[in-house]
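Appendix B. One record, verbatim.
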Amino acid sequence: MLNILYYDGLTLKEIQTDELVQVVKSEFGANTMVWIDIADPTPEEEKLVFEDCLPIHTLALSDIRRGLNKTDNEEIHHPKVEEFEFYLLVIAHAMELRKAAASDESGHKGLHILTTQLSAVVNSNVLVTHHSHSLQSISQTTASCTKNPQVMRKGPDFVLHLVLDFVVDNYIEISNHYEQKVESLEGVVLNQPSTKTLMRLLHLRRSLQKFLRTIHYLREIVYRLSRGEFPMVSIVESVYYRNVYDHLVRVSDQVETVKELVSGLVEVYFSVTSSRLNNVMKVLTVISTVFLPITFITSFYGMNFQHMPELRLQWAYPAVIVVIVLIAVLMIVSFKRRGWLD
């Protein structure tokens, strides 16, 4: 599906595909631009945009299409920025919180994180964004442009900065979500540690590591865009990319902190389970130690010898019982005084 916004320097309007080629092929005036957003496109729509309107290299098109054609064994293309002669290719990962239809790998239901490859092609007057399905960052940027058409007056590089800024806002929301999950797991680890809890912690740590890697990729891209390395991003607009970079640094620090908390919770889990195991072993050891002399007495008088004088005494049985109870009580009192039962 194509959504095409055309700004002629004064007004913003949505145009249809049959007008697109004519608009792109015509000479752009000052402060005019076209934003083509492609969501889950057909091959015909991709041909119209990337061959008829804005021809790009086959390798660049292959990287862009990877977000649509990936298999279960293939991941989406890693984030990158690449400069060509007449345009700039930017690939980012748009991550959003969505309601989960089923349990995740940790067995936890609720929200899950959907990662989508967001590709952008930028030249002096045209911005093309390409993704597999609807994205919040795109819809939010579209709303900003519709509300204030002067936004598009600043050019495709400024609109791309808005898209990336909204992508980073979603990163912050995801980071807060991870932080809440860690807080909810703290009580579980201390009060009801189980193998399932450990699996949730390990899954969470693995997800945070993947998320952190994505943030670092995007941070490097935005840093390059902010220092005037590419002609397609003007020095004036590079200042806005520095602002996005600052946001990425903050969210990166937050995720690093959450990841450290998860690693700390894993250590606490093993400490708590080890402490509980030690308590169990201590109780079992005390029980075994108490029964050791009792077992000796009962086994001693269980021997089948004819000449055992105590067996003929009337008070022998109650005396043995008293001795057994007395030994058990004395040993328990002794263990208690030494603090072995605390």
